[in-house]
Structure formats: structure tokens, C-alpha cells
From TrEMBL, chains A, B:
It comes from Paraglaciecola polaris LMG 21857. One of its GO terms (molecular function) is carbohydrate binding. The keyword Manganese does not apply. GO terms for biological process: carbohydrate metabolic process; glycoprotein catabolic process. This is Alpha-1,2-mannosidase. It comes from the Bacteria. PANTHER family: PEPTIDE N-GLYCANASE PNGASE -RELATED, SECRETED PROTEIN.
């Protein structure tokens, strides 16, 4: 382990900016961060339970920033609100599995379920689920960054979990009996995931290795592991409850019961490393990351890694509740994309094969339809050194499949959402100087996305919009393709590709074709150019209409690259503002089959889903920016609560949280690919954003007098009034002071 | 490509014997054999259709010796007699897939189905199977080693197939239309195999790559491929018949239709390389093995590789039919174990992970319950240089799982048959000097097999036999475990492990415990030592009785390591011979649920299955060896026919064929782990066995006069009478002359 001597409290290299860390990829295992007590205290503001209730779909378990392992409890329920394995409404546990999705609308992962228990396995699992089910209470449960703890009275065990980047570490303290057992269940799955082949092998009386090959949302997901215990065990394999002898088991679904006998009050520590490549990879990961059984040491390191991340945003304010919401949002913003490669650089590619690269760290879990909006821009400020790896990961995906990822789940393209939103992420990274990939290579990959012959992309190119009679979700696709094309055009221009620039710039204007002046909405057209009939702006239906998880009210605003152009379609600022006001003030009633994704309603504005996330900031570019501030504050207050049921919709792999982070800071990437941030209204008295090269960008709120109406009177950047209510990424990264005067 | 200058007609290194080739593994791609016209003519004696009818379960397609690829036609039927994908009774084809099992009783593989066709895919596949079905006639079908050809009149295409070690090469000559298409179907599966994830990607208009992950008999089988064509194509992906756009497809089942349009009379050549590790591996394999599109060149090389193998046994005789049977049996003996690693040494291990070794060539498909008997001993004579790689492959399997393979299908333990018969194969290799693995390592692996706590092996150790009330197939297991233990004891003695020698020698005598003097049969005992009641020596039932795919008549003889001991149980040679005579002469009626495996009956002798294969040679160790000769000739004549329905039972990955090869030569490894061959009766006037170091072992039949009764009067080895009717492996390998006088 290398010990970095950190400048001040932190390593320069820990904060982003390729220039300072150009030659190495980020490996948190090589960092031994030194953090101040202030930073450690910041951890106390993170409540991992926020979002675990309602539709938030977050998980409360132990994880390090962007870690491969999310070691977290799993409830028996398989309902929609359990896609993360856990919902706060539950009080039964099946155990602790090692991989979890944060905030998704579809379930998968939950690999390698581990459950401490007592009694006879088959008796305990003799229920409808065929699994051991154990009661717990939130009163005896706690979680903080890198740590989770629960008491399982049925088992008389105290369970504690922590994690490194690629390993989960369990500490089980059994008491009052001499029957300490641990179940490892590879057949456990949820949603439409299922194991298709599993393997386990006992290497010695402390060590087990294995794999779980599953298919589901992720079509082909191999997960390899090693589990090592600090106490010796005897063991019994099972094949769906049927005992199987042998030093190994190789079947569709398998379990093993490890019997530790009488170890009362001696903590049983298990360290479990994963690899998506091989058992040898898991072994190497474990050896590098957890060379001992010192649970507290691992826990402390996990906390330090989180402290480093959170300390990048130093909040000075007395609003404790807002700080909990803010730091928890930061925490949820730094869970994914997940580390996907082994410590030796090996990774499982989208071609189903192992590869190795020392050049970059492979990430997976790109929920791009969600995260291109605010999460990836947030990472360009806070974790710039990871952006290169993420871009390189997407480019490797392109090398493996011929396309950039759209929704990459463990190196499988799920194609679950629309758009080619790797494009804005890559373009943004390029212009912010955060990728080392040659721009010509980037451009070819972007162009391949835009020239696909599926999902109506070819129709879009042919007709100038996606015809509704030829393709579902035609309006949403037209609008999102147009935005992505704007980003391609931006890069084309920079690379002096005039023809491409013209071509994609033209496609970027396609939104105009679908604006129906009569109704004032983006509305579908058939291939003959006629408006789709029976139009209702409040109508929704899942995956059958012209709009993706939304209606015309929600999608009409999706022109982040040309707000002026959109205003002009409405006939100018006044009618535009009138419509925008109505969006928030109109009745929330929607007819049709309303997906639970469409939540967090203010009028027809639905903050619980992504298409509208930029909309409140459109006010910022008008003469009535105070209306935006009002809505931003309303959304911050009502859609984000300091409570398990605190998120108004799926956190969607951090996008909901990233919106909050930006909106609390006081600015937002309305167009996430133009390097600009539009001002909103800051939540705190002061936030100091720690930046590479020892720079700091400070956001301050000051009162001009005692008569403040709560709206921003003026914003100054380094003492000068902010132009056009917009600051640039460069403004932020150079360091300085943004002062909002109320 | 290295060109070996071969001594005489053949490379010394091509024949076996570690001493001559100690530093390299065998890679047929590096050989450019020079063969004589005589050797090429020998190919004409191989009829790959033998065994494709009835229950033989062989396939007629193109393959090189021990090749990874078996490119062969697949019929629509899924019956038991189609486990190889093909049965001669059929007249419809689905296409040509790249992997096939030869002679097994369970189906799997059939990866990457390719079908040339014309017309609209969906129309053509609009039938119950959902697949294109094309008629063919045996009149327009032919096969020879390394080559298969069939006309498909429905498609107006002439299809020709050939193969390298890791590639299949197709040549399709379309005529009379301008609609040349090729389907590649990754969802195609048979038996309980099924694809769980597939991927295809078009790299350019000549090239496609992909994978097929399947589960079935083999729990987890990834197969990667690259397909490259000599003509450009346009393409359409399908997901179970539903068109899918995109440069790639990633789903449970997928197909692609490649459209070549008007290429009438220009041969379409496709070269398809496999890898069990990665797409990159398949690419490397293709580049190394088929760097061009010269079908005839590849075909010629395949023929040369076969000529080299067949020329190891140079038959001089006028019985053309017997020569066809003999050379076809040799051909079927050299199909497996299959090459399993990539050209760069990478292989998929039994731990589900990729590994790499330059030290040995990895083989898979070890049907050991069948092949330990005669196939592996045959390889020690004919392909000694491969034996080290096979032992190393089994040892790698041991490293990966903790156990040697029992029935290894694509690096998955199927546990489909009983016994730990890697043991005799390894012990035999050790004593014949054909493995470089340290004997201590070998011994630990053998011992792990014998000390398992499953399949009654632990009961066997505890009770001295497998109690019938505690374990199924208890008699068969007791007998086979005892034999395997004898082999372990042999190695223990050589390694001066006196305690182990005593222990396993004692277990080797366990057969005595189950001999029921009253009935004269091996008979089950309960754990209390009582005979199992309701005993009938003719009773069979699949996997529920004391006998494995057999009855007491068939299993009573399984004491290959102590024939004298078995005789003594009967009370001496006379009653032993009386019983042996009765075995062949008694009624063939069996009561119970008779498995089709129990075929090839002479009395209760069932040559179509393996347990009795050594039995005719037991006569050779008595004073009535002529009775054995009579039965051997009867079996050679009636159980092996020069006909598609020519095998009396499953070829079982070459074991049935290897029996024939030995039995035609005139000797057989009654005990396949003692380095001895018991004499039978030779089929031919003369066979010259080409051996390493330019040695030749000649077997001659001579008549002592015109009054021969057809029985062997005398056998001499290098002019001296053969002692005990047995010759040693060393006798053979030193070269010399074995003369049978009739």
C-alpha cells in the first residue's frame, strides 16, 4: 500500500483534473487518505436510509465510492420497490448480497447472498420462499457511509458489514448459543434475473471460491468470488435444498452451509472479494484489498474514502437537515458507475470475453438516460480524474460492440431507455479536457451512435423527426436525438468537420418540426407530416405513446441546447413563461396507465422522473428567474426529505441526487454538454468546493438587508456581476467566489 | 508454419513417446505432414457414416484428429438417437453446427448452427420448429475424413465442409438463382441444452463475431466464434424470428441472416473459428489456422492429418470390408478428447474462468467411464505425445475443482457415470512414461478421488463395499472403485508409500465381499452385511438397481485387476469357465425397464455397453482361450458392421471403436492400468504399427497348414513363445514381431 502524503488534508490527485494525475488511473486501494476530524464528522450527515423507502430504490448497505461491491441487506419481497433488494417498509431479511443497484426501476444483481443463522438449514428454509427468513427491527439497525449494522434476534447474531472497492467484509457476533452457521446462496435472484450456472469449491476449512452465472436484465453476467473466514468451518453443499457431497458443486442453483459450531462471542469475520473475470481475479482482489481480518481497519478506510469525497464540498450552514439531505445526495451521487475491473486491470467486456488494460480503469453501470443530465457533469467537477476512465470504459464498450453504451449493466447493453446519451457525456468530457482518448476516435464512436438503424434513429435521419406511426415514443426520441446531435455537432466543429457539423446541426433543430403551435406542445407527426390525432397533453401510457415515461406536458421542454429556439416557437418569452407557469400550476391529473415512475408532481411537472429535471432552470434564462428559484426551493424542500421515504422517485443511479447537489449549490448544467452552469438559488450560507491544484470555488449567500424576499437580487463571480445568469465550467475550476445576494 | 522434415513418411514426433518430443506440446497446425499416396488411399477405408444409424450416435461431419471443431449436419429430430445431431434415418437438415459429441448417450453442444438457404427467412422458418428445414438425400451426400458434402435441392446449393483444429470451413455453391443467403442461429440447441445468452456483431461486410453461452448437460459452456466470408454480405439480426436492428445483438436466442445476393456459381466460402475463452481467441485461432479462403487447401491438410493418424496402423490384407471397419474404428478413436485451448494457450477452466498455459495443451471431453477401458490405452500406443497433455488437462481440472474429472464435458463435471476412472488413465500414463507431472502431485490427485464423500465412496471405505440400502448402483460402484483403488495402490507402491499401498490394496479386494457363492454372481449387500433379497441376475432398471446400466450377469466379471481372484471365488477355473460360457449362451431376456444402452446382446453379454468389454479376453487367461477367440470374432463380425447402422451400441466417444481396433490387432488391455495386453485373435494378415523412434511392431497371422480350425495355435513374440498369453506395453513399443499361428 502506498501512502500518499496529501497536500493539506487531501491529495491533489484525489480531486480531479487530468493535468495533475495524467499518468495513472484512480485506484482507491492505493490511497491511504489522511482526513481531518471535520471531514469524518461530515460522514454523520449521510443517512444511507434516505431513499430506501417509497420509490427511491436506494440501498442502505456498505460501499465505498464507485465500488464494485455494495454489501447490503436483502428483503424477501420482490415488488417494484425492492429493486435494490431492500425497502424500508420491510422487516424480514434473507441475508446480505454483494452487488446492488441504486435507484433503478428494474432489478438485477444481488449476487452471492450470505446469511448468518442457527438451526437446521432445511428446517429454517422450510417455507414458501425456500430460504431462511429472519426478522429485524429498524431500532436495531444502523448505516453510515461504508458501514451497515443490524441485529438478527432470531439468529442471536449481531451483523456488521463494511466494504473495500472489490470486497465485502462481514462481522457476525453470535451470542448465547454454540450453533454459528453461515449460508452462502448462489441461486438467490430477484426480478427476472436468475442464476443459470453456479459453482462453489472449498479450498480449505477457511476458504471457499465460486462463481454465479446469471441472466436477466443483464443478459450474461458472470460473477466470481472468494470468501475467506477467520474461523474454521465444516460444510455442506446443497442443490436447491438437496444435500450434495463433494469438494465442489456445479449446478444451476447451489447453496453451502458453513458450520462454525461454538464460537460464541468470538466475532466471525468473513471477507468476500468479487471479480467479473475469474476466481483468480477475485483472489488477487482480496489479497490486495483485505490482507487481514481486521474489520475495524477496513471500516475506517471505507469511512476515510467517503470523507475524502464528501469533503470536496465543505458546507457552512446551520441547517442540519439540509446538510443531511445534501451530503446524502452527494453520497448517492458517488455510487456509480461502478468499478468493474480487477486490481490487475482485467475486465469482462461487452463481447462476453475477458480483456486487460493498464491504461484505464473499467467502469460499468452507465444509466445514461438518467445520468447524462446532472450526475456526469457533477463528476466533471468533483471526480474529474475518473471521467477519463469512464469515457475510456464507454469507448472500450464501443470497441467491443460497435456502439457506445446506452444503458450498460455489467457490460451488457440493456437498451432499456432511449437516446444515445453517451454522446453528451463524452463531448462534455472532451471540452472540459477530461479525456485522453484521441478526438477522432471519439467522433467516430459518437457518429456510430447517431447513424444506427434502430429505435427510429434512421427514421429520424430520413424524415427529420421520428414518425409516430412508425416508431413508439417518437416525440421523446426526436427531442433527445436532436440534443445528442447538437453535442456531436459541437465536437464536429471543434475538429473542423464542417460537413458533419452542418449535418448534425440541422438534425439538432428537428425539435422545431414537432412543435404544434396550436396546442403549444411537442406533438407527434405521422410519416405524412400530419399531427397525430386524439392528442391530449395529459395522457400517459407506459411505452406505447409518443412520450417516454411521460406526457406532452413533461416532454415539451426538452430542448436543453436551444432554449431561445424553444421560446421562439412559443412566440417569445411571454407565452413561453405563461406555458411554463401553467406546467407547475395546472392540475396533476393524468389519464391513461400512469407508470409509478411519473412521480413527484407539481402540476404536470414530475420531478420523480428525469425528462423535466432541467425545466426549473429554464426560468433562469428569462426575465422571471425568481419563478425558477421558487420552484427549485419548492422541489428541494418537498421532493427531497430527510427521511427513508425522502426521494420523490427512483434515485436512478444518482441522477435525482445529483440534481439536488447542483440545486443546493446554486447552479445547474441545463445543457449538460455546453460546459455552462445556469444559476438557480443556493441553499447554504457557504459551500467551499475543493478543486484540483489546490483551488477552491466558494459559493456564498449574503443578505443585502433585512428585507430580503428570498429571491436572488444579484450574483457576482469574483466580484463582477454574472453575465446571462450563467457561469462556465472553467469559471468553477479556476477557483473563485460566486456570491448570491438576496 | 513450420515444415517438419519427416523421417521416411512421418515425423518421429507425430507418433508418441515423450522422449522424442519432450519439449513441445502437439499442435497439428504446426505440422505440415508429408504423406505417401498409400497413406492417402487409406482414407478411403474410413466411412464416417458407420455408426450414424441405429444407436451408434456418431456424426458424419468434418473434423481433424482430436479437433475442437466438428462441423457436421444437424437433423431436426431431437430423439435419443440424435445426440450427435444426426441420424442416418433422417432426410431433413437444419444446417451445420460446429461442435458435436461422438457416440454419447446424452446430447449437448451443436454450437453455432450455419445454414445456407434462399427465400425469406421468416417464411422458410414458418413451421413447428421455427427453423428452416431442408430436404436431402443420402444419394447426394458423402463423407470422408476431414470432409463432408451434401446437396440441398430446396436451396439449390451444394454444401461442402472441412475443418482445421479450431475452425470449420464451409463452401456453398449456389446455382440457378440470385438469392444466396446464410443463416447463423445461436439459439439452436438440443436435448436439455439451451442458450442463455447470445451475442453477435458485424465487424465488416465480410465478418461476424459472437458468443453463445449455454447450459444443459454442460452446466456453463461459453462458445465464442468468428465467421468470415469470401463475399460481402448485407445482414439482418433476429431475436427468435423478430427482426432486430443494430450492429450487434445481445439476447437469449439470436439469429442473423446474411444476404449475399447474386453470386451464382461463385463458391461462397465461410471460415468459422471457435474459442472457449474469448472472441479475440477465436480471431487468433482463425488467423493462425485459416489465413486464406482456399477450401481445397484446408481440406487437403485435414486429409493429411488423418492420413498420418491412420498410417500408424498399416494393414496388409485383402478383406476390404474388415479394413473399412478397422480404419473407421481408428477414425472414431481419434475424435476425442477434444482440443480445448486456443492457439495462444488460453483455455476455459472448470472454475469457469480463463487460464493460460504454454506447458500443455488443454483437452476436454473425457468420457472416462467408457474410455479408460481401451481408448486411453490405445492412445498410449498411437498418440503417446498427447497423453501427457491429457494427463495435464485432468490435473488442471483437479487444480480448478479439487477433483480429477469423472465425465468432463467442456470443463464441466457432469458426474453422469460412476467410478473415478481418471485414476487408471493417469496410473497407466505414469508407468508407461507418458506424463511429465510429478508423481507426488499425481498421487495426491488420485487419492482425492478415492477419498471423496459422495457417490458411496465414503461408504465403500467404511464398510468395505457400498451397501445397497444406502446407495444406488452399489455393486457396480464397489467393483469399479476396487479396480481404481488397485491402480492407486500400484502407484503407491512405486512411490514407496507403504501405508497407502496397503490401504488401497485392501480396498481393491473388496469385490470378494460381494461375490455370492450360492448364486455365482456379484450381488448387493445391505449395511448389515445381508444379501439383497429378490435377487435376479437378469433384472435391469435404469439407475435404480445395484448395477449401472446393466445386471448381475454383466457386472459379475468386473475384476480386471484380479482375474485369478475372481476365478477362485467361483471355485476355480472350471466353474468360472462354465459361468462364462453361460453368460454368452443363456437367454437374452431381461426383466425390468431395459435401457437402450444395454444392446449388442450375445446371451446376457451386452457388447453395446462398456462393463463387459474386457470379458471375452478373460478366456485368454484360461486353458480355453479358443472360446474367447470365438467370441471375439463373433463380436467383431456381428457387433461391428460396415454399414451406417454398424455399431451395436453408442460408440461412447470412441470406446466401442477402440475395442475393435485392439481386437482386430489381436490383443487387448484387459486390465487397462497394468501395462499388459492379453492376446486374442488377429483379424488381418499383417498390421505394421508405426512407433516412435522409427520402430515398428508387426502383428502377423500365419497358417501352420491347410487344416487350420481358425483358432490360434501358437503366438510368438520376436520368435519366442508368448508367456501367459500376455505381452507388455514395452514389448510393443520396443518394436518387434508378434506372430499368431493358426
Amino acid at each position: 500500500m502506498k501512502k500518499h502524503i496529501l497536500a493539506g488534508a487531501f491529495s491533489v490527485c484525489a480531486f480531479g483534473g487530468l493535468t495533475s494525475c495524467a499518468t495513472s488511473t484512480v485506484d482507491d486501494n492505493n490511497l491511504e487518505p489522511v482526513v481531518s476530524s471535520f471531514d469524518i464528522q461530515t460522514l454523520g450527515y449521510v443517512d444511507p436510509f434516505i431513499g430506501t423507502g417509497g420509490h427511491g430504490h436506494t440501498f442502505p448497505g456498505a460501499v465505498v465510492p464507485f465500488g464494485m461491491v455494495q454489501l447490503s441487506p436483502d428483503n424477501p419481497s420482490k415488488g417494484w420497490d425492492w429493486t435494490s433488494g431492500y425497502n424500508y417498509s420491510d422487516n424480514q431479511l434473507l441475508g446480505f448480497s454483494h452487488t446492488h443497484l441504486s435507484g433503478t426501476g428494474v432489478g438485477d444483481l444481488l449476487d452471492v447472498l450470505v446469511m448468518p443463522f442457527r438451526g437446521e438449514y432445511n428446517q429454517r428454509a422450510d417455507n414458501d420462499l425456500g430460504r431462511i427468513v429472519s426478522e429485524y427491527s429498524h431500532e436495531n439497525e444502523s448505516a453510515s457511509p461504508g458501514f451497515y449494522q443490524v441485529s438478527l434476534p432470531d439468529e442471536q447474531v449481531e451483523a456488521e458489514l463494511t466494504a473495500t472497492e472489490r470486497s465485502g467484509v462481514h462481522r457476525y457476533t453470535f451470542s448465547g448459543h454454540d450453533d454459528a452457521k453461515v449460508l452462502i446462496d448462489l441461486g438467490y435472484a430477484q426480478n427476472f434475473d436468475k442464476s443459470v450456472a453456479t459453482f462453489m469449491r472449498v479450498l480449505d476449512d477457511h476458504t471457499l471460491v465460486g462463481y454465479r452465472i446469471s441472466t436477466g436484465w443483464s443478459d450474461f453476467q458472470p460473477t466470481y468470488f472468494i470468501a475467506q473466514f477467520n474461523q474454521p468451518f465444516s460444510y455442506q453443499f446443497y442443490r436447491e435444498g438437496e444435500p450434495q457431497a463433494g469438494p465442489f458443486i456445479n449446478t444451476e442453483k447451489s447453496e453451502v452451509v458453513l458450520n462454525f459450531g461454538d464460537i460464541a462471542n468470538q466475532p466471525l469475520v468473513a471477507k468476500v472479494a468479487l471479480s467479473y473475470v475469474s476466481i483468480d481475479g477475485a483472489k488477487q482482489n482480496l489479497a490486495a484489498e483485505v490482507p487481514h481480518f481486521d474489520f475495524d481497519n477496513i471500516k475506517q478506510k471505507a469511512q476515510q474514502l467517503w470523507a475524502v469525497q464528501l469533503a470536496k464540498f465543505k458546507v457552512t450552514d446551520n441547517d442540519e437537515q439540509a446538510k443531511r439531505k445534501f451530503y446524502t445526495a452527494l453520497y448517492h451521487s458517488f455510487l456509480a458507475p461502478q468499478t468493474f475491473n480487477d486490481i490487475d486491470g482485467s475486465y469482462f467486456g461487452a463481447d462476453g470475453s475477458a480483456h486487460n488494460s493498464q491504461e484505464f480503469k473499467r467502469y460499468s453501470l452507465f444509466s445514461l438516460w438518467d445520468t447524462f443530465r446532472a450526475l456526469h457533469p457533477l463528476l466533471t467537477i468533483s471526480n474529474g480524474e475518473r471521467v477519463n476512465d469512464m469515457v475510456s470504459s464507454m469507448m472500450a464498450f464501443y470497441d467491443e460492440t460497435g456502439l457506445l453504451p446506452s444503458w450498460d449493466l455489467m457490460a451488457n447493453e440493456t437498451d432499456v431507455m432511449i437516446g444515445y446519451h453517451a454522446v453528451p457525456v463524452i463531448v462534455d468530457a472532451y471540452f472540459k479536457g477530461l479525456t485522453k482518448v484521441a478526438p477522432e476516435q471519439l467522433f467516430q464512436a459518437l457518429k456510430a451512435s447517431a447513424m444506427q438503424e434502430r429505435f427510429g434513429i434512421d427514421l429520424f435521419a430520413k424524415y427529420g423527426y421520428v414518425p409516430s406511426d412508425l416508431e413508439v415514443e417518437a416525440v421523446s426520441k426526436t427531442l433527445e436525438y436532436a440534443f445528442d446531435d447538437w453535442a456531436i455537432a459541437r465536437l464536429a466543429k471543434a475538429l473542423n468537420k464542417e460537413k458533419d457539423y452542418q449535418y448534425f446541426s440541422q438534425r439538432a433543430q428537428s425539435f422545431k418540426t414537432l412543435f404544434d403551435k396550436q396546442t403549444g406542445f411537442m406533438r407527434g407527426k405521422t410519416k405524412t407530416g400530419d399531427w397525430v390525432q386524439n392528442f391530449s397533453p395529459t395522457h400517459v401510457d407506459h411505452r406505447t405513446t409518443d412520450y417516454t415515461e411521460a406526457n406532452a406536458w413533461q416532454y415539451t421542454w426538452f430542448v436543453p441546447h436551444d432554449v431561445n429556439g424553444l421560446m421562439a416557437l412559443f412566440g417569445g418569452e411571454a407565452p413561453f413563461l405563461e406555458k411554463l407557469d401553467t406546467l407547475f400550476s395546472t392540475d396533476s391529473f393524468m389519464e391513461g396507465d400512469v407508470s409509478p415512475d411519473i412521480s413527484g408532481l407539481i402540476g404536470q411537472y414530475a420531478h420523480g422522473n428525469e425528462p423535466v429535471h432541467h425545466v426549473p432552470y429554464m426560468y433562469s434564462l428569462t426575465s422571471q428567474k425568481w419563478k425558477g428559484e421558487q420552484r427549485i426551493k419548492e422541489i428541494r424542500d418537498t421532493m427531497y426529505r430527510d427521511d427513508p421515504d425522502g426521494l420523490s422517485g427512483n434515485d436512478d443511479v444518482g441522477q435525482m441526487s445529483a440534481w439536488y447537489v447542483f440545486s443546493a449549490l446554486g447552479f445547474y448544467p441545463l445543457n449538460p454538454a455546453d460546459g455552462q452552469y445556469v444559476l438557480g438559488t443556493p441553499q447554504f450560507e457557504q459551500v467551499d468546493i475543493q478543486l484540483p491544484k489546490n483551488k477552491t470555488f466558494t459559493v456564498k449567500s449574503v443578505l443585502s438587508g433585512e428585507t430580503s424576499d428570498g429571491y436572488v437580487k444579484q450574483a457576482t463571480l469574483n466580484g463582477k456581476p454574472v453575465n446571462m445568469n450563467t457561469i462556465s465550467h472553467n469559471d468553477v475550476m479556476q477557483g473563485g467566489e460566486l456570491v448570491f445576494t438576496f
